[in-house]
């Protein structure tokens, strides 16, 4: 990358006063045209130097500001969540080196169901009528129930508890 002083020397602009007053690209972008005339007398050179400074210092600081702003937004959107919908491949590579000492942070990224210890099931009642199975609806004592059970609960335990739940109702006309 070419520095400001090198650029000024290439265009045959005197650099003594610029170095003396410690003028750099950020300062040049802040100076008015009248103030810049003291350091760079030719109009075309002033325009070229301003353009050089915009391309040199402007994009680097803007992209850095943009990255930090995006990081702040990501933190606000998912402050305590392990998964991050906005993670890029570069972010994951950088965070993998940080999380080597704590492996639980990289485990199950994006899979909230694997982190849960319970599951929600819907329980219904079927009665056999002849050669068909028919669902028992709510008005006749049936209907569906929503249960939350541990993931390690066996089907046999769910059946036992569901018979108690469904058959304990007084308005059952079937079964």
Automatic annotation (TrEMBL):
Q: Where is the composition biased (Basic residues)?
A: 73-87
Q: Where is this region: Disordered?
A: 73-115
Q: Give the superkingdom in one word.
A: Eukaryota
Name of this chain's protein:
SAM domain-containing protein
Q: What organism is recorded for this protein?
A: Mytilus galloprovincialis (Mediterranean mussel)
């Amino acid at each position: 990358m070419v520095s400001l002083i090198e650029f000024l020397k290439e265009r045959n602009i005197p650099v003594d006063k610029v170095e003396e007053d410690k003028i750099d690209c950020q300062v040049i972008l802040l100076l008015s045209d009248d103030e810049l005339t003291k350091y760079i007398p030719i109009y075309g050179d002033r325009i070229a130097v301003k353009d050089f400074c915009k391309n040199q210092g402007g994009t680097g600081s803007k992209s850095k500001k943009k990255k930090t702003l995006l990081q702040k937004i990501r933190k606000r959107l998912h402050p305590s969540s392990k998964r991050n919908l906005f993670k890029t491949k570069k972010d994951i590579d950088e965070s993998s080196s940080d999380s080597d000492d704590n492996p639980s942070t990289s485990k199950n990224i994006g899979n909230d169901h694997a982190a849960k210890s319970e599951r929600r099931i819907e329980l219904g009642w079927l009665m056999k009528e002849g050669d068909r199975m028919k669902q028992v609806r709510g008005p006749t004592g049936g209907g569906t129930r929503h249960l939350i059970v541990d993931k390690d609960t066996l089907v046999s335990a769910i059946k036992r508890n569901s018979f108690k739940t469904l058959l304990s109702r007084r308005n059952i006309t079937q079964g």
